[in-house]
């Protein structure tokens, strides 16, 4: 693919200021019934009775805070019932809702219903929001049929009449759980009960239809909104655009975008990014760049982190890695962090071109920006699986990052993996591992064994780390081990006879600090003028 102009000549390339647009607010969805085609704690125990920690003269705020601190569901129930018996207890929907949420996380559904009965007695009415906790909790355990049963029973048992917001929440949970038949049933119930839909209701149902690959019915449903005095918003249009893109019909998505503009709906970054993603998915990167340029001039669009990530991904996957690196540099200058998928595609693209050193540079840059170290480890192994023999330069920053995050076992495991599958560790690698083990990265015996291994391979330990190990051995009365290590250091570092005699003299007279100070002074005078952070 030949770019009509290099990246730097696109009007949005020299970034001046940001125009961050936020997507339209999420509102609810429709009325005519739908038919979908068939498509394929851990508990923390408390050592103290929670009631004991709360004064009988507690305020509602203090009770609420105490409930929020509890993780164990039985402790929550105990505290709630204890509080309800105190003379100054004032029931409120916020307290009941907090108890319901705690029980819901533990899957204590019978206990939740008991609390709901208490709420009905104490407050006379139950608000819709408290019932949403049931829907959310059932969904978190995958109990979608139980949601429908609960909704059917709540009006009879608790006298609650579901409103539009309630149905929107219910429908959205079912759509996100991909329970489209239950969406159909719930929407039918909504219609039969005369609950009026709003824009969010339509948006949720359109999302459901698009997930069922029924784009035409989704468009018809959008057109039906006018019958209810409602107008489609950006969410409505972009959902249908996304549906077309998932079907591989980018031209259809672009037609919806034109329809959106004609309807007077404001185009924000959300819309542009949906379409840029469509171009990138089809490998039409040059068109994506032209579209961004056009939207920049016409709508004042400015790329955000999602735009950048999609472009870097798209450029990398289509072999334009050099351009991808340019875009990532711009992205970093603008203060946006690439995501894991961007790093992965960029590193893979560089490896395919044989640019292994550049791939490692990107990996190291990723670590420096505090990306999750397990992600860096995974990417390192991905490079390795491509049959590329990596150098210590690739491994050292990842091993160091693991030690800095107190993940010494993983660091040592990666070091051993490096010995087996990559080029041999260098002096810097040994320094990193030894320092990590001596700074509290594991049992002292492991640090001792590693220091011996290091010396046997001809690498002299860094004295500051060796001194920490020496202090640990001395505090554990393992003087014999310390003397043995000092002897090994002197032998491998080729100390002169006079130097050896002096240090051994200090050791024989138990002047260990003098021995270590002399050892350190001699080593410092010999080491190269080079530091590794």
TrEMBL record:
<feature type="repeat" description="PPR">
    <location>
        <begin position="198"/>
        <end position="232"/>
    </location>
</feature>
<feature type="repeat" description="PPR">
    <location>
        <begin position="268"/>
        <end position="303"/>
    </location>
</feature>
<feature type="repeat" description="PPR">
    <location>
        <begin position="304"/>
        <end position="338"/>
    </location>
</feature>
<comment type="similarity">
    <text>Belongs to the PPR family. P subfamily.</text>
</comment>
<keyword id="KW-0677">Repeat</keyword>
<dbReference type="InterPro" id="IPR002885">
    <property type="entry name" value="PPR_rpt"/>
</dbReference>
<protein>
    <recommendedName>
        <fullName>Pentatricopeptide repeat-containing protein</fullName>
    </recommendedName>
</protein>
<dbReference type="GO" id="GO:0003729">
    <property type="term" value="F:mRNA binding"/>
</dbReference>
<dbReference type="Pfam" id="PF13041">
    <property type="entry name" value="PPR_2"/>
</dbReference>
<dbReference type="Pfam" id="PF12854">
    <property type="entry name" value="PPR_1"/>
</dbReference>
<feature type="repeat" description="PPR">
    <location>
        <begin position="339"/>
        <end position="373"/>
    </location>
</feature>
<feature type="repeat" description="PPR">
    <location>
        <begin position="391"/>
        <end position="425"/>
    </location>
</feature>
<feature type="repeat" description="PPR">
    <location>
        <begin position="233"/>
        <end position="267"/>
    </location>
</feature>
<dbReference type="InterPro" id="IPR011990">
    <property type="entry name" value="TPR-like_helical_dom_sf"/>
</dbReference>
<dbReference type="InterPro" id="IPR051240">
    <property type="entry name" value="Mito_RNA-Proc/Resp"/>
</dbReference>
<feature type="repeat" description="PPR">
    <location>
        <begin position="426"/>
        <end position="461"/>
    </location>
</feature>
